[in-house]
Amino acid sequence: MNRSEFLKLCAILGIGSTIPKSILANDLFNDLRSSDFGNDFVWGTATASYQIEGAWNVDGKGESIWDRFAHQPRNIKTKENGDVACDFYNRYNEDIELMRDMHIKHSRFSISWPRLLPEGTGKINQKGIDFYDRVIDKYLKENITPWATLYHWDLPQKLQDKGGWENRDILGWFEEYVSLCAHKFGDRVKNWMVFNEPGTFVPLGYLIKIHAPGKFGFNHFLPALHHVSLAHGVGGRVLKNVVKDGNIGTTFSCSHVDPYKNNERFIQSAKRMDAFTNRMYIEPILGLGYPTAEIPKLKKMEKYFKPDDEKNLPFDFDFIGLQNYSRIVSKPLQIVPGLHAMNVKAKKLGHDITEMGWEVYPEGMYKIIKQIAAYKNIKKIYITENGVAFKDSFVNGNINDTKRIQFLKDYLKQILRAKKEGVDIGGYFVWSFMDNFEWAEGYHPRFGLVHVDFKTQQRIIKDSGKWFSEFLQK
Ligand code: FCB
Questions:
Q1: 429 Cβ inside 6 Å of ligand 1
Q2: 166 labelled catalytic
């Protein structure tokens, strides 16, 4: 339906006046072009070290918590692991050339801490440095701008053996690691993200043991959260000092939260859910503290506070990376410790569901962008992850993933809507460039624009990859 057909239909239905002018003005119903987002808008794809590199114990790399976790029975649904993954360690040249051929001009990737510092601190693994030097140089040679994430969850196991993020000494270990990356790669990499989604790896890894390192309970969660919060400033300050002309950010997983029913109990549950999912991670970094009013359990955090922490928690990032896939619909549930709420299963909500069991809800992207943009000290937002896993089917050697194309278009329209309303959004990265190891799920949910045959390591560009490539040229 084009815009005028839509307006006609509204007139017939008598609903024209209820549609916000901004939506109509934004012309959401025409087909999208990348140029609609402006000439300086950054378009890219994203990956992460453990999910693609493989070579888990090669050339001096130390063990990470994900190596350990995935090697233990029962942690990964499919009993798979990231030992080989996409074998990017050996195939980065061809993969980066494929990116180039697809007209992708920006690539978000992460650096594996134990590849550089096998014990987490101390001895440097030169072969690890050489690997990232080669990767970065290849990106630059192919005119692709590298965007590096320092921590996408693969903590050195040796540091976990000393308590990992629960041990306050990690602030010093992290500083050493960030400083090494900044000094070695900061001459060529200008765009940096300190963390990938604390709102995922801290609760899943330290509260409900679904992710590495598989810890359970608030006694693990609270110190881990506080040290991760503090480490934002630690990393940010090092990068600011060392990287000349750096663009320094960090990323948060954010989801708009709606109450399942429109009554006070459900509305309050949604407030707690929002505090737990979104505010708890971003607000300390913005100088607003932890949302203790909604989550009183956070008051116990005081135990882990040192005198200067309040001063050191905030950091003035150049940008915030917002990562969104779905929304959360909340209901009250007393038995859930600390939160007393639960998300309603996506299948009850009447929308399409992804292979991850997540609801397809494009408008949630718009709403969460507006929510995050309303914080007054955020300078710029990049959408550093968005994408989807549907069941991909082969037809005559092609992967006709039309649902993924539709998903990306629908979400992009909502990003454009927020941008046209004045939110300073600088770019968008699809998760993911290629199918990869999806953490506790294994290789089954496929998020890539490029299909990977994990037996042969053959890559095939999906229809969504072809669409994205054409879209980037328009
Ligand atoms: C995000 C992670 C990313 C990937 C996508 C599907 O939470 O940052 O590594 O797993 O979800």
A1: no
A2: no
Q: Which of 276, 385, 279 is nearest to 341 (CA)?
A: 276
Q: What is the mean pLDDT of the chain?
A: 95
154 lines ligand 1 (CB under 6 A): no
DSSP state of 353: B
Give 47-62 pLDDT, tens digit per residue: 999 999 999 999 999 9
- Given ligand 1 and candidates 252, 431, 443, which is best to mutate, with the most ligand atoms within 8 Å of its CB? 431
385 catalytic, yes or no? yes
Cβ atoms of residues 390 and 403 within 8 Å:
yes
Non-local CB neighbours of 39 within 8 Å, separated by 6+ positions: none
Q: Is the pLDDT of residue 18 over 80?
A: no
> Is 420 exposed, middle or buried, given 0-12, 13-18 or 19+ CB atoms closer than 10 A?
middle
Sorted by where each starts, the structural domains of the chain and their CATH numbers stand as 1-31 (no CATH), 38-471 (3.20.20.80)
125 CB-side CA count, 13 A? 23
CA of 323 to the centre of ligand 1 (A): 9
Alpha-carbon span 196 to 191, nearest angstrom: 14
Residue 140 and residue 106 in contact, taking contact as beta carbons nearer than 8 Å? no
CA–CA dist 19, 361 (Å, integer): 18
The active-site residue, picked from 53, 197, 359, 438, is: 197
* Tens of pLDDT, residues 425-440: 999 999 999 999 999 9
Q: Whose CA is nearest to atom 10 of ligand 1?
A: 438
What's the rounded Cα separation, in Å, for the pair 114 and 177? 10
CA distance 433 to 449: 5
pLDDT above 80: residue 23: no
- Ligand 1: centre distance to CA 193 (Å): 15
* DSSP secondary structure string for all residues of 373-417: HTSTT---EEEEEE-------EETTEE--HHHHHHHHHHHHHHHH
Place of tokens 């005028």: 4
